[in-house]
Design the sequence.
């Protein structure tokens, strides 16, 4: 019985890691499409707040641009002066 439980637990961990990796490697637009498709299904399963939080974070990332700018708006950029 312990071996079966261990195999199930390892399987759940592997699937969770695969889903997380796929999510992180998706483009932001693909994430939004995935949320649009999976949102109603996950909402019926009781994960509506989780889906709403992911949607909010993804929309924030889409609005952020390429993320090349500093998030610290009070920082002053001083180019190095080499002479």
Sequence:
């Amino acid at each position: 019985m312990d071996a079966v439980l261990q195999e199930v637990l390892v399987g759940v961990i592997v699937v969770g890691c695969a889903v997380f990796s796929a999510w992180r490697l998706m483009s932001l637009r693909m994430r939004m499409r995935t949320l649009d498709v999976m949102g109603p299904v996950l909402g019926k399963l009781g994960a509506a707040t989780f889906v709403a939080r992911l949607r909010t974070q993804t929309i924030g990332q889409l609005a952020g641009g390429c993320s090349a700018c500093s998030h610290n708006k009070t920082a002053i950029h001083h180019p190095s002066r080499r002479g």
